Amino acid sequence: MSLPIYQRVAVTDAGDVIPGAEYTVINENTGVAAPIYSDRTGATLLSAPYFADSVGTIQFFIAQGTTFRVAASGGVGSYTDRYVYGVAEAVLVQADGNVEILSGNFGIGTSSPAAQLEVWGAPATYNFSAGTDPLVNAAIISDNVNAGTGPALVLGSVYSGDNTVANARIFAERQSTGASNAGATDLIFEVGQASGSALVERLRIESAGNVGIGTSSPIYPLSVSGEASIDLFNTTGGGQVLNFRPEFGDSNKYNMSISSYDHATGSGDSDGLSINGYDGVSICTGSSTSRLERVRIDNAGHVIAGGGLTLGNGQVYSADKTLDDYEEGIWTPRYVGSGVAGSSPTGVGTYTKVGRMITVTANFGNFNVSGATGDMRISGLPFTPSSASNNLHTGAATTNGLGADVLVSSILVNEGYIRLRIANTTIFKTVVNANNRYLYTTVTYETA
Predict the structure, then answer these.
(1) What percent of the chain has a predicted confidence (pLDDT) above 70?
(2) d(CA 240, CA 124)
(3) Are residues 135 and 144 in contact, defined by beta-carbon separation less than 8 angstroms?
(4) Taking the mean position of all CA atoms in its chain, how far away is CA 416?
(5) For the chain, is the Cβ count within 10 Å smaller at the N or the C terminus?
(6) How far apart are alpha carbons 146 and 179 in whole angstroms?
(7) CB 94 within 8 A of CB 82
(8) Is the pLDDT score of 352 beyond 50?
(9) Within its chain, how far is the Cα of 67 from the centroid?
(10) Cα separation values, 328 from 273, 354, 385, Å
(11) CB proximity list for 162: less than 8 A, separation 6 or greater
(12) What are the backbone angles phi and psi of residue 254, rounded to the nearest 5°?
């Protein structure tokens, strides 16, 4: 049988090494000198007196199951230690109460430890505190091979009755059964909350490699509170993408992500930030229980203000993504005389409205006029002109067959029609009754 070895450096309480110290080995049970050997087989018995080497090292072999005390002294002081060598282990119990395992395995709750330190115990019931007491105790608890809570490291403080007060716990939770314990296992971290309450799980590393913070069933590499799951990956171009839908393939990870962006038009340097949404990007406000979309950029690049984006002069954006006071359309201009309307031929007109400013066109092609008298007018304006005293608007007119005069178009105060006036005069053009004539005019005016 191999004997356990004792090997220590003789050191005083002050920390001074005792070179060449003379030492004795006393059997604690009999009070006499214990036999010690120079080899592990016990073939060579050492003879007293015993001396440490030049650097203070004491080394010998001793029979298993021996409780003994080593006492050494020299020029700088003395040294004493007490040890217990178990049947199959080598354990040193020092005079200051510390324990050292010199060789073999050490078991607590098991007679056949398979590791240097193996601790077994039955599942225990714990009281729980708020964690304000000093963490002076720790326990390693192991149960059977059933599914559920497995080996646990419990950090406790004081004792409450017969139960240890637990402040935190780290334990394995097996997801299957079996004597080999080869099933899927999660690692769980719990902490105390308040006096008398159970420990609360705060972090879990599950068997598939997912990590959950605030959730016991993480489904992503990192799940936080079960609400936000993120995935950071590099594109082929080296850009960083923070993706909120990890189940997407790489080609679609941009659809819900925040990424670096090259604003330098092809330099290759990612000098900016891009917020990416397949159907759009929204800015929302609201309370903890509701969310209201305020601004959206849709996938066509339109900016939409759902609650109304206020512009100058009270203008807002409309649902069709344009200014609500911007309008395009057609109208029907009518050629009439100021005295008698006559046959009143109609033309084709267009208008564009921006705010209160209206630009209209009126086009009469190959038209016939009969029975009209008075000044030449065009009626049917799509919007009523403003009644402001300074409201005088002049536009261009092109004619054929209506005389040699150069005409311009005018809209006067409180008049809902276009007058045709001879250029550079205050004279309005008299209506011309004729066939196959042509007239085109345009004017911009202010509506009410």
Answers:
(1) 69
(2) 48
(3) no
(4) 62
(5) N
(6) 9
(7) yes
(8) yes
(9) 60
(10) 38, 9, 17
(11) none
(12) -70, -20
Please report how many Cα atoms fall inside a 13 Å half-sphere around the Cα of residue 127, on the Cβ side: 13
Burial of 143 (0-12, 13-18, 19+ CB in 10 A): middle
What letter represents residue 41's amino acid? T
Query: What Å distances lie between residue 416 and 151, 203, 208, 349, CA to CA?
Result: 92, 77, 79, 15
In terms of Cβ atoms closer than 10 Å to its own Cβ (0-12, 13-18, 19+), residue 66 is buried
pTM of structure: 0.37
Query: CA-CA distances (angstroms) from residue 433 to 366, 426, 427?
Result: 13, 22, 18
Residue 146 banded pLDDT, cuts 50, 70, 90: very low
Give the DSSP per-residue string, 269-287. ---EEEEEESSEEEEEE--
- Residue 27: CB partners within 8 Å, gap ≥ 6? 33, 34, 66, 67, 68
Please give the DSSP secondary-structure letter assigned to residue 45.
B
Strand (E) or helix (H) holding 436? none
Q: pLDDT above 90 covers what percent of the chain?
A: 13
Evaluate whether 161 touches 127 at the Cβ level (below 8 Å): yes
Give DSSP secondary structure letters for 398-422: EEESS-S--EEEEE-TT--SEEEEE
Please give the residue that has the higher pLDDT: either 37 or 244: 37
Contact by Cβ (8 Å): 285, 293: no
Tell me, what amino acid is at 191?
V
Sign of the CA dihedral running 278, 283, 286, 292: negative
Q: How far apart are CA 173 and CA 19, in angstroms?
A: 52
Is 360 buried (19+), middle (13-18) or exposed (0-12) by CB count in 10 A?
Answer: buried
Paired tokens of 127? 């009281």
pLDDT in tens, 389-436: 555 678 888 888 888 888 888 888 778 899 888 888 888 888 888 888
